[in-house]
Design brief:
This protein is α+β, with helices and mostly antiparallel strands. The protein has 4 helices and 11 strands. 14% of the residues lie in helices and 28% in strands. The structure holds ligand MTE and molybdenum atom.
Length: 216
């Protein structure tokens, strides 16, 4: 979506789909026997999905606040972020709008590194991801902490392009891609859950593709 005028229509259409249970196949694969989750089709391209805004955040202005229910809240600038241990992970993307894309090579900072840095309090059970475009999405802390989750700044060896969420986006491969917040601005740890942009508009709170948790 590139123009703001289309946004309300798009959001309304997706909310209506959620109410109607569109795209559900009724053929779940909870054991993940197949690489391609039910109801998905493989694409070679990389579709762009956003709310009609693609914020431009120069590296000099980029900040990432990590706060909430943590012992050691921090705000990282670009140098501070790059100075953290870097990791690489190859994973598949599964979007709720039914496309999947295999073998995405992400480079960035593992979420485990972030947890070691800020030290979530015992009360923290949820993570709210905030984008520079105002988007939010919520994930359970144990899901955010999985070994294949990272704050990525590169895809297939190149900086993540602006339309795909650069300078830094979250990657949470195990769940539908709407959980992978683009243009990451803030990571908020919380004792209480705070459903995000799509979660309050009918999308599932967890979003497991293999059991087709498309809608709440
Ligand atoms: N900040 C932000 N993150 C976001 C979104 C968004 O609109 N804003 N859209 C989500 C949705 S619905 C999907 S499917 C993926 C799309 O990522 P892509 O454009 O890189 O394919 O980003 C997710 N993260
Ligand atoms: Mo999506």
């Amino acid at each position: 979506m590139s123009e703001g005028g289309g946004r309300d229509k798009l959001v309304a259409a997706k909310e209506a789909w959620a109410r109607a249970g569109r795209l559900l196949t009724g053929r779940p694969d909870p054991d993940r026997a197949m690489r391609l989750p039910p109801g998905q089709r493989l694409v070679e391209t990389w579709p762009v999905l956003d709310l009609g805004v693609q914020p431009h955040v120069p590296l000099a202005d980029w900040r990432l606040a990590i706060d909430g229910a943590v012992a050691n809240p921090v705000t990282l600038d670009w140098d501070g972020f790059q100075a953290l241990p870097q990791t690489e992970d190859v994973s598949d993307i599964h979007c709720v709008t039914q496309w999947s894309r295999y073998d995405n090579r992400w480079t960035g900072v593992a979420t485990s590194v972030i947890l070691d840095l800020v030290k979530p309090l015992a009360s923290a059970a949820h993570v709210i991801l905030h984008g520079y475009d105002g988007y939010t999405t919520n994930v359970r802390l144990d899901h955010f902490a999985e070994a294949d989750c990272l704050l990525a700044h590169a895809h297939d060896g190149r900086p993540i392009p602006r339309e795909h969420g650069g300078p830094v986006r979250v990657v949470i491969p195990r769940y539908y891609f709407w959980k992978s917040a683009k243009w990451l601005k803030r990571i908020e740890f919380s004792a209480v859950d705070k459903p995000g942009f799509w979660e309050v508009r009918g999308y599932h709170n967890v979003g497991d593709p293999w059991t087709e948790e498309r809608y709440g």
